[in-house]
Amino acid sequence: MKIYRKLEEIREPFSAPAVTIGNFDGVHLGHQALFCKVVELASKRGGDTVAITFDPHPLVVLRPASPPKMICTFEHKAELISRSGIEHLISISFTPELARTPAREFVEKVLHRTIGVKDLVVGYDYAFGKGREGDAKFLEEMGKELGFKVHVIPPYRVDGTIVSSTKIRELVSKGEMRKVAAMLGRFYQIRGVVQKGKRRGGPLVGFPTANLHIYPHDLCPKEGVYVVQVIHDLCCYGGVVNIGTNPTFGDTGLVAEVHIFDFDKTIYGHRIKVNFIQRLRDEKRFPSVEALSAQISRDVEQAREVLAREAGLNRACIEG
After folding, report:
1. Domain presence at residue 173
2. What is the pLDDT of residue 243?
3. pLDDT digit string (tens) for 71-92?
4. Coil, strand or helix: which one is 265?
5. Which residues contact 133 (CB under 8 A, 6 or more apart)?
6. What's the CA gap between 258 and 226, in Å, rounded?
7. Chain-centre distance of CA 223, in angstroms?
8. Which of 41, 102, 251, 261 is placed for a possible disulfide with 18 were both Cys, Cβ 3.0 to 4.6 Å?
9. Alpha helices per DSSP H over the chain
């Protein structure tokens, strides 16, 4: 997939393109339905498949005091969109000036002249432009005027609930990782560089950990212990992670401490990916290191049982 960071990089309109536009945070099943329709329409015309997104997320600019926490990084989003069969990803820088751009101007200059849209696929609730005037009805009218067809995709539901990035953020913050996975079509994942911690996990507790720092803008699962998969250097491992402040030792500051099963490499400074499978329990303060170690032993045993009985986990881990 080719990524365009500026509209100026597009030298000429695409070939009979099917296009979709959105923020696509999380690339959940609702977003995937849009991409599927784009691929279907493009294949009928023999045209290009194009997705348009924005960086940063518009609400980071429009509501700087309370920006949303992102479900995935741009890098991860691009990987997932590419996996959906999209050939061209256009990332438009979202600025206050862009927010003030009338929808008609955006359609004429960007969608029509620059991209050459023939089929435009949008979600049922999508709107853009100044005052969010660019809704489905407006786009259909513009399509008749400029010669492109608009396809509105209905909401995607899981167990009766509409899949949305907002709902997924809510579920992640509650630690309901099974429900999150059902809406994403994959496990929720965090990525980061392994940091040097206080090195108590192995020598003192008996369970060495790879530590990932949690930043205030990160979408972090509810504090507690989780069954996870860990991807490092294209290999997949089972594990458990504690999200919290490690109250037994009186620490402060949120951190993800990952104990990786059957793993003895030193990976400080290495990037890892952590897939969240299931929440096991709350974080708690233990009266002694021995009590903490005994509980971690039980956590590990339970996590291994979960991983052993789950079908499709290896495939999910390989796909990252």
Report:
1. no
2. 94
3. 999 999 999 999 999 999 999 9
4. coil
5. 102, 103, 127
6. 9
7. 19
8. 41
9. 29-45, 58-62, 74-83, 96-99, 103-106, 136-146, 165-174, 177-184, 289-309, 313-319
Domain boundary among 141, 158, 175: 158
Sign of the C-alpha dihedral, residues 129, 135, 141, 146? positive
Pair 106, 236 in one domain: no
What is the token pair recorded at 166? 């907002």
Residue 54: which CATH number?
3.40.50.620
CA distances from 102 to 83, 93, 133 (A): 32, 16, 8
**Residues of the domain holding 296:** 187-319
- Residue 108's Cβ-count burial label (10 Å; 0-12, 13-18, 19+) is middle
pLDDT at residue number 203: 47
What is the CATH number for 237? 2.40.30.30
Q: Are 97 and 209 part of one and the same domain?
A: no
Q: H-helix or E-strand containing 120?
A: strand 119-123
- Residue 2, beta-bridge partner list: 88
Residue 42 counted as domain residue: yes
pLDDT, mean of residues 139-159: 97
Q: What is the pTM of this model?
A: 0.92
Q: Please count the structural domains in the chain.
A: 2
**pLDDT bucket at 202, cuts 50 / 70 / 90:** very low
Nearest to 42 by CA among 22, 21, 16: 16
pLDDT in tens, 12-71: 999 999 999 999 999 999 999 999 999 999 999 999 999 999 999 988 888 888 899 999
Residue 76 CA to residue 107 CA, distance in Å, equals: 28
